[in-house]
Specification:
Elements lengths: L1 H4 L3 H27 L4 H29 L1 H21 L3 H29 L5 H21 L10 H12 L1 H5 L16 H7 L1 H27 L4 H28 L2 H22 L4 H28 L6 H29 L4 H21 L24 H6 L6 H19 L1
């Protein structure tokens, strides 16, 4: 087992550095922006800028790598990401930060695609599921650790910007000194809305609104927590707990969706998210504990919806088109991610901080209503014809390369066996 991970250790380490820096970057900007008096609209536009850059990176990285190579492309993207966070510390201006956040999103998407391509190339076919399971856990752990670093110092200084830049640069080192062969060409991403809609209207409609809600919450959760009066440590927990809850809940949700109509699972999970939204609005919680509990409930549900939607779409996909379907849904999710933070920023600026949950609740209501209507119009897929449920965290840590490299089209039992083995391996190594 250890031998299977030795060839990819450097790549996993590089990915950990990249996600650690990304965790710092994603949290320092809204917290520092709030302290600087930036408007909620401008803080929401940070998420819009990121989403624009991320979608552009998913589309444009493949031809760039084909022209100049993997190592040069990765080096350029890591370096530019480091530059962007350093410039953010020098130029304290919301519009500059929005543009720089877009640049960082572009670089982050490209760097992630290259690392995933490299992992896929180095992983033996029989170990690929386990390796990508560990890769997912490393990314989630690194992101959380990066966010929690902000509890150790003053976010109003230069230190965390410099620390983020340092770890972006450190991500360069493992790939730069690696002696492994050049990976295969990257996956190409194409968006064909008409084909996606013919395949599964529920998937297209739902993934757009999930993009709206997830990006709005992911971008502005720190702003809400800060303005509701939570301490810096609690703000970091408020943004980290939903990600971890979403990661832990995906496997039981996936097992459930493999046994029944995935649309019913989507409705149930969206209903839980809607309950959490309404609790934030109606209860107006101010205490640390209740806010963290509701954040975990909301995060566990909203971050479990995307993989259910992708699995449902692939249930209806023609043979050989699963990757194209998944890539198109990723870009559709990105379109919603562009709109969500912008709308939520305006709502919070005009109505109040809890308007964030008005936006997310409307999104979840749309998902529930349309999915119920489609259940009345179309029968479910037979269990024997279902594709597999693939745990995924869309938008910030998932690219089309993730789906292709981790063998998205494997059967459900094979995927979950790989995840369980990866979890057991990590537990043994920690002992």
């Amino acid at each position: 087992m250890i031998r299977q991970f030795l060839p990819v250790t450097a790549l996993l380490l590089g990915s950990a550095f990249l996600l650690f820096a990304g965790g710092i970057n994603s949290l320092i900007l809204p917290i520092r922006g709030t302290n600087e008096g930036f408007s909620d609209v401008s803080l929401g536009l940070l998420g819009t800028g990121w989403a624009l850059g991320y979608v552009s990176g998913c589309i444009m990285t493949s031809p760039l790598v084909a022209r100049v190579g993997h190592i040069r492309s990765f080096g350029a993207m890591a370096a530019i990401a480091a530059i962007s966070i350093l410039v953010s510390a020098i130029v304290i201006d919301p519009w500059a930060w929005i543009a720089l956040r877009g640049v960082c999103g572009f670089c982050f998407a490209g760097a992630a695609m290259i690392v995933e391509s490299w992992l896929s190339e180095q992983a033996a076919p029989e170990a690929r599921g386990r390796i990508f399971g560990v890769y997912t856990m490393v990314n989630l752990g690194a992101t959380t650790a990066g966010q929690m670093m902000l509890t150790l110092g003053d976010p109003n200084g230069f230190v965390f910007f410099a620390l983020g830049a340092i770890f972006y640069c450190m991500a360069l080192v493992p790939t730069a000194i690696s002696s492994t062969k050049t990976p295969a060409p990257l996956a190409l991403v194409k968006l064909n809305i008409r084909s996606l809609w013919r395949n599964s209207p529920v998937a297209v409609f739902a993934v757009f609104w999930v993009g709206v809600s997830n990006a709005a919450f992911g971008t502005l959760a720190a702003v809400y927590a800060s303005k509701v009066g939570l301490t810096l440590a609690s703000v970091a927990l408020f943004t980290s707990v939903p990600i971890l809850a979403g990661a832990f809940i995906q496997i039981p949700v996936g097992v459930w969706s493999d046994k029944t109509d995935r649309r019913r699972v989507l409705i149930a999970v969206a209903a839980i998210a809607l309950i959490a939204d309404l609790a934030f609005i109606l209860l107006a919680p101010e205490g640390r504990l209740i806010n963290l509990i509701l954040a975990a409930l909301l995060g566990g549900s909203i971050y479990a919806m995307y993989p259910v939607i992708v699995a449902h779409a692939n249930d209806h996909a023609e043979p050989g088109t699963a990757i194209q379907i998944s890539g198109g849904l990723l870009l559709t999710y990105g379109m919603g991610s562009i709109i969500g933070p912008l709308v939520a920023g305006f709502a919070m600026s005009g109505i109040g901080i809890r308007a964030l949950f008005l936006v997310t609740s409307c999104s979840h209501f749309m998902v529930i209503g349309y999915t119920i209507w489609r259940i009345c119009k179309r029968d479910s897929v037979a269990d024997a014809e279902k594709s597999n449920f693939q745990p995924a965290t869309a938008g910030r840590t998932s690219t089309l390369q993730t789906m292709e490299s981790s063998n998205f089209v494997r059967r459900p039992q094979d995927q979950f066996r790989s995840i369980r083995e990866a979890t057991k391996s990590k537990t043994k190594s920690s002992r």
